Amino acid sequence: MQDLIKKAGQVKLLIMDVDGILSNGQIIYDANGIETKAFSVQDGVGVKSLARYGILTAIITGRSSAMVDKRATEMGVNHVVQGRDDKLIALKELLSSLDPALNITAADCAYMGDDLPDIKAMQTVGFAATVPNAHAEVIKRSDMVTTRAGGAGAVREVCDLILKGYGHYQDFIAHYTLDETQAQDELS
């Protein structure tokens, strides 16, 4: 686990797929043909936590959806690339579009994906993560398999691991907790 934490501590940019990672992978249409997706609030807190410490985030997805834009904006995702079937080319284009002063290479990235179109991008980055119900070939090529499924806090697990790798996790948690003295004062 220490090696995994150390590897996560090198991540400067977390790249996420949507269907199966930020959502549960289901595509649901209502009676009017309007597509809906469900996203995890916990994933949103995790993505925002990375921004607090200067770690960038991006989405690369094969589908295009206004819901993805809306959710990405809510979470503060830095870059959104939609409608791209070749995720490796999309990853390379994303990296080349970044400010050179950031000095971010593929080795500095984490990529979360769950299906075959994600594999090449995952093989290119420094840290690859997936979910337990991912395709077997994706699992085989991943550094980390989360305990939670996509759309149910899997991204949060990776975000927490990245914060641990940088030594920021306890500081992040301290924003949401009281120390023993503060807790006792609240009870009084």
From TrEMBL:
Mg(2+) binds at residues 17, 114. GO terms for molecular function: 3-deoxy-manno-octulosonate-8-phosphatase activity; metal ion binding; N-acylneuraminate cytidylyltransferase activity. CDD domains: HAD_KDO-like (cd01630). It holds the Pfam family Hydrolase_3. Its cofactor is Mg(2+). Keywords: Hydrolase, Lipopolysaccharide biosynthesis, Magnesium, Metal-binding. It catalyses: 3-deoxy-alpha-D-manno-2-octulosonate-8-phosphate + H2O = 3-deoxy-alpha-D-manno-oct-2-ulosonate + phosphate. Homotetramer. Catalyzes the hydrolysis of 3-deoxy-D-manno-octulosonate 8-phosphate (KDO 8-P) to 3-deoxy-D-manno-octulosonate (KDO) and inorganic phosphate. This is 3-deoxy-D-manno-octulosonate 8-phosphate phosphatase KdsC. It comes from Psychrobacter pacificensis. The gene is kdsC.
